[in-house]
Amino acid sequence: MRIVVTGAGAICAAGASPARIVDAALEGRSAIAEVASFDVAGWPRRYAAEVADYNAAKLVGDRKLLKLIRRSDVFGIYAADRAIEEAGIPAFRDALEDDAATAFAEGTGCYVGSGGGAFNVNYDYFPLMAESRGDMEAFGRELASTVNPMWLLRTLPNNVLCHVGIRHGIKGPNACITNHTTSGMLAVIEGAEAIRDGEAERVVAAGHDAPIEPQTLLYYHLCGLMAERDLRPFDAARDGSVLGEGAGALMLESEDSAAARGARVLGEYLGGGDAAEGEGLLALREDGDGPARAIEAALGDAKLNAADVGMIVAHGNGTPLSDRSEAAALARVFGASMPPVTAFKWTTGHPLAASGILDVTLGLEAARRRVAPGVATLARLDPACAGLAVSSSAAAPRTDVVLIVCRGFGGTNAAVLLRAMPA
Amino acid sequence: MKRRVAITGLGAVTPAGNDVAATWARLLEGRGCGAPITNFDARGFSTRIAAEVRDVDALPLPPDRKLLKFGNRSHRFALAAAEEAMRDAGVGPSDADRHRWGCVVGTGMMTVSFDELASVQREAAPEGELDPGKVLAEATANDPMAFCRSQSTAGVALLMRRFGIAGYASSVHTACASGGQAIGTALRVIRRGAADRVLAGGFDSMVSPVGLAGFCLLSAVSPDNDAPERASRPFDATRNGFLLGEGAGFVVLEAWESAVRRGARIYAELAGDGNSLSSYRITDSHPSGDGPIQAMQRALRDAGAAPADVDYLNAHGTSTPMNDRSEAAAAKVVFGEGVGRVAVSSTKSVMGHLIAAAGAVEAVVCAKAIETSTLPVNANLRDIDPDCAHLDVVRDVPRSQRVRVALSNSLGFGGSNSCLAFRHPDETAAIVTREGGR
Questions:
Q1: Confidence band, pLDDT 50/70/90 cuts, at residue B228
Q2: What is the mean pLDDT of residues B203-211?
Q3: How many CB atoms lie within 10 A of CB B217?
Q4: Percentage helix, strand, coil, to 5, in chain B?
Q5: CA distances in angstroms from A323 to A234, A385, B156, B407, listed in the order given
Q6: pLDDT in tens, A108-143
Q7: Which among A338, B316, B322, B341 would be 20 to 30 A from B237, CA to CA?
Q8: How confident is the model at residue B244 (pLDDT cuts 50, 70, 90)?
Q9: Chain-chain contact of B150 with A119 (C-beta, under 8 angstroms)
Q10: Taking CB atoms and an 8 Å limit, are B42 and A136 in contact across chains?
């Protein structure tokens, strides 16, 4: 059974739709800037890719909801709404009679990749802790008069799943995946599998994260993962990654479901793969064994050969080891016959749990325009990445198939293959 | 035809016991594990009781003790329960097949320990408001190990490292449904051939000031501080909230034919996964059972089983007024006239609610029920809620009964519902023989 993409949504510092973000990439504009959400004067690392002019009420169109959700959730709901709307789901659903509407709701699934490891949310307890000064009995006693009673609900990692479900009456199979960077990518893969299994006719897949917080920024720096300023994937002088934030979302449908609705088809989901190295939370192998196996698994799943791939969206997070080993993985799979490689984190920053699915929406948009955007911050290719078909200027894909690669903590890796319909 | 999946290893660390045998014995005894909280000073809280894991220091350690630095309390539970499950299965990844092993876990949402939070507050928010500049000099914020422990993938990374697993890896969180969803995901991963064996389970500990606070603020936990052993009484007319527990449960899942080939002890077939979204309200369940109904029906359909094949339902049964009523209504719709022939118990009555670990531990319980033809007790049930009176609840003493198919419900905040279906291995073997003969 063919699975098609009928809607896509995205938001990050570089723009609020896949089209705007790809425009930014093609124009060579990076959205990385000095952190504005908190004072970084004197900080060892001061740059991030923050969504400017953040207006939560406008993004989700429901002021009351903001009491129950966090910044990351706002991005996730926004992107999922856009994908669902672009696919024309609301108009179709609203026109259905009762029984057909019930069947439609139960045949629609929702798969979300959600960020974890947030620190700021716990700071809601700081006023109470300051007041109780280490006296736990006072902490317990004054709890109800000091802390928002909805605190736990605002904190739930599965909030986007819940609220997208309620907003759109989705009652089918679902998951909330909290697997660091591969979360959003696994939401795409598991959502597509639910359609293949016949558990759902259509699925909205989303991934979201908002990790730009003081503690997170400092920890990433201490772990040696943060660039001083620019994110320069595969460049000889690259010095780390830069935190981003945002979300990506896709509407995936069985071909029959899309045809029955007369939906416009943006692309086709061809296959996905996941493979971990499992050598520790922060450990990565030099030889790129994990990403190579993830790509091979995706090719096997899609019944394609490496030569069928027209362009590659690399993870390219800008850290020396991740990029070097990713280049090794791509060399292992594609050898001397490598299609154009691009990456987007140099402009979007690294939005962790959202990054894979955000890259899927951007890869699809670029491939529909038949262009692999250049990596504008690439000055000199790292000799350790020799053979990687990446460039600072745009290139033409050799086929309509795009491969997206995603890597995360724990040595986890995921890969997805899509066919892009012409824009 | 769907690839069948066998459960060949079990592990558990729960308030009822630090391994499967001790946990199972306590569940049969039917004595509640609720007690005054000892993890921290909870005297000021409206609820001061919980079901805690005892003798944490006596839990088995991984051979490489340095791994513990990367983990928190719930990861400690996970390592011990997974160790038991892997040993029980008698099989582990080799260099030749470690890529064919997966690991899928349901993880808790508490990422920061209270002591670490308190340290940041004292140094960087002495008046209650964070001064980011002061974060730079604070000890916890400068401890990369604190960061590692806080990551949602800390658990899956530890387990993969400990056992040499290098295939499909994922962490899921759908609140109280997490453990069930993790095992359901693992089932699908093996079925589609993305792995041959998966270590799957869940772990959690919210018995901490911030964890308990969240539930106290929502009035979700029982305030029966004077009768902690009876605080969790699912389906009882006087129930008034859940008893917070903690722990971990793990199973080893493998393709049925490989388990048979190597002569493994098969506890049960993990036969079906049903998964639905209620899309009603965040914390409320629909009084009609809408949501859980679809999860149970999908699990049965996925397992190729009929409602009449089910002999045991391990209920989500949290002991909150709303959950138990809604779940009882769902059972009535799913089983129809036959609802009285399905034995039901909520083992949360004894060990409390293990949140993200609950569904995983309850999968272990279902496997034991099938293995031993014994149904654990729904403790503390005196006067059944009239809205639940159509259920055949296993009261007072365990029941001897062969189980053909068992269902386990896990229903989460946010409306994610998971139902797993387990089949007696003899029933599966008979089906396999019949199918082979066609």
A1: very high
A2: 97
A3: 18
A4: 40, 20, 40
A5: 6, 8, 23, 46
A6: 999 999 996 589 999 999 999 999 999 999 999 999
A7: B341
A8: very high
A9: yes
A10: yes
Give me the residues paired with residue B199 across strands: B103, B252
pLDDT for B315 beyond 70: yes
Q: Break chain A into its structural domains and give their ranges.
A: 3-116+157-420, 121-152
Percent of chain A with pLDDT over 70: 100
Per-residue pLDDT of B250-307, as tens digits, reads 999 999 999 999 999 999 999 999 999 999 987 788 999 999 999 999 999 999 999 9
Topology adopted by domain B5-111+151-437: Peroxisomal Thiolase; Chain A, domain 1 (3.40.47)
DSSP state of A50: P
User: Which chain A residue's Cα is nearest to B299?
Assistant: A199
The mean per-residue pLDDT over the stretch A171-183 comes to: 97
B 182-201: CB under 8 A from A: 185, 188, 192, 194
A-chain CB neighbours of B283 within 8 Å are 153
- What are the tokens at B31? 């004595």
Catalytic residue flag (residue B316)? yes
Determine the CATH number of domain A3-116+157-420: 3.40.47.10
* Mean pLDDT along residues B405-425: 96
Q: Identify whether B353 is a catalytic site residue.
A: yes
Domain ranges across chain B = 5-111+151-437
Q: Shortest CA distance to A374 belongs to which of A406, A400, A401, A340?
A: A340
* Shortest alpha-carbon distance between residue B42 and chain A (Å): 7
Identify the closest residue of chain B to A415 by CA–CA distance: B168
Residue B430 reports pLDDT greater than 90: yes
Distance of CA A373 to the CA centre of its chain: 18
Nearest to A174 among B120, B151, B275 (CB): B275
Partner-chain residue, chosen from A143, A190, A409, that has the shortest CB–CB distance to B213: A143
A405, A315 contact by CB (below 8 A): yes
A278 and chain B in contact, CB less than 8 A: yes
Partner A, chain B 349-408, Cβ-Cβ below 8 Å: none
Q: For residue A68, give the chain B residue with the closest CA.
A: B282
Hey, are the CB atoms on A275 and B209 less than 8 Å from each other? no
Please list every residue in chain A whose beta carbon sits closer than 8 Å to the beta carbon of residue B173.
114, 116, 157-158, 176-178
Per-residue pLDDT tens over the stretch A325-374: 999 999 999 999 999 999 999 999 999 999 999 999 999 999 999 999 99
pLDDT at B438 over 90: no
Q: What is the DSSP string of A307-341?
A: GG--EEE------HHHHHHHHHHHHHHHTT-PPPE
Of B46, B157, B217, the CB nearest to A410: B157
Residue to test with chain B: of A163, A215, A301, most B Cβ within 10 A: A215
CA atoms of A384 and B121, how far apart (whole Å): 44
